Amino acid sequence: MATNQRQPLGIELVRKGVVKQEDIRDALEYQKNHPKEKLGDILNELNLADPRALLDAMGEILGEKTIYLLDGDVKIDVTRYISLDIAKEAQAIPFEINDGTVKVCFSDISNKQQVESVRLIMLNKGLVMERYITFKKNIQKVLESLTQVSTETIDTDATGTSIVDNIIRSAMAKRASDIHVEPSESSIRIRYRIDGQLFTVAKIDKDKQSQIIGRLKAISNMHQEKQEPQDGRIIMYPDYNIRVSSQKNIYGEKFVLRLLKKGNNIKGLFELGFPRDPKLLKDAFDKRNSITVIAAPTGEGKTTTLYSVIDYLNKPEINITTIEDPVEIRIPGLNQIEIDTKTTFAGSLRTVLRQDPDIILVGEIRDEETAQIAMQAGQTGHYVLSTIHTLNAIEVVARLRKMNVSNYDISSTLATSISQRLVRKLCPHCKREREFTEEERNIIQKIGNKYGVDFNIENIKTYDAVGCDKCNNSGYFDRIAIYETLLITDPIKELIIKNASTLEIREEAYKEGYKPLLIEGIRKVLEGITTLDELNSKLLFY
Ligand SMILES: [Zn+2]
């Protein structure tokens, strides 16, 4: 048989139609700044392909089994089979066992030594390893959920009713945004999401499962008998709206409770972390006849920023309409429309335009139709605010092109593109002051040189995230956003019209003083608000 004449992964992926040639070009460009990242992970990170389709195609090309590994796929107690250190080192998660075979998922099988060492560890436990691949991000999410265990304890001997009440009240006290109630093989695991991270807070005996699920269904107004996925709401806690969803797994029904605190807790943009520069604020948002987009991955606080922008622009004489999925905060004086299963952003937007609002907030531009109508709205006397899923402000142009918005429409309508990330703030109760290391100084200096910013780090201290009972031993408390702002100036409009690449647009933006997220992030490190480590976990710069 002829030897396998395999082409590089990128070429094969294009041939399979999963990505386009220009996506590979963008990914390789990104790789120059992130040399340790693998092509598949970058395509996934940049959101250039449907993640599951991309993974399947990679599996076929590489001849590997694949799984889009999520928490719910992990059917075993991982740490009984592999130490967390080794799992992290090898980026490997054993996730299911059947008849002496253990399925292990890796994010990097090119490191043969690591793969082999995991295989031997499993063999020592009498298990034959069956290998799967997934994205690095998926492995890291699972690892994260395994590592964070809070010191909090919940009285698990109580009745179902009081356990559930306990779980919910304790989550509120700890500022959790979500509660996960997950039946597993031998217990029910309770986890909180706090400042974006999941913490395991309790494991409750399996024999309490039916009581807890029964109680959750009762207070969420769900059908007790129905096992299909359900959505409900809990309204018995006056300060909170709690949305509940259920989904069956092999050990029972899993519940996720999303906690939304009521009341006007919209923060000002500066308070959120926007650079304290009133002129920039005005240049970025005080517009008419155009579109401003907040561009970031999911879970980075885009919606919170949009609400703050609306709050900043809200005046009695201005007519503001929002189309959201769902409406998270009610704001007095606004006409807020919620998307449901029968409506779409595009459909609602069409209806709203007939009401002639001055400002329209469109929750998200996620398809061609919405993009086109949003553009039209921006060209006909309205100011449109929206979000879009890209990694940074400059990639918005490429994303809109991908949605078949013409260069003319982009250049004439897009006014501002803002990107953001949420980073955790050092816990004020336990942070420990220290000097920057030589290596850290070098990293900061190098970034400063690259972007033409003079970071003066003489006499500046940094802090270690230590951990105490106030911060679930994580060393961090609350989050702050870092922002980058791209103003679509005349020279940039010209470049867009000429179909210039992301790279060319970026070069011009630098000339005009655009500063990437990283610069704003380093500033927040130098101000002692966060750490270089935390920033790197978001932006991967070393
Ligand atoms: Zn602390």
Features:
alpha/beta; GMP Synthetase, Chain A, domain 3; Beta-Lactamase; Rossmann fold; seven-stranded mixed β-sheet; 19 strands; globular; binds zinc ion
Through-space gap between termini: 44 Å
Helix proportion: 25-40%
Structural class label: alpha/beta
Q: What overall form do the CA principal axes indicate?
A: globular
Strand order of the largest sheet: 13-12-14-15-11-16-19
Mean pLDDT: 90
Bound molecules: zinc ion
The biggest beta sheet is recorded as: 7 strands, mixed
Low-confidence stretches: none
- Specify the CATH architecture of the largest domain: 3-Layer(aba) Sandwich
CATH class of the largest domain: Alpha Beta
The number of distinct structural domains comes to 3
**Radius of gyration using CA atoms only:** 25 Å
CATH fold label of the largest domain: Rossmann fold
Brief overview:
With 542 residues, the protein is of the alpha/beta class. It is built from 21 helices and 19 strands. The chain has 3 domains: 9-137, GMP Synthetase, Chain A, domain 3 (2-Layer Sandwich); 148-261, Beta-Lactamase; 269-539, 3-Layer(aba) Sandwich (Rossmann fold).
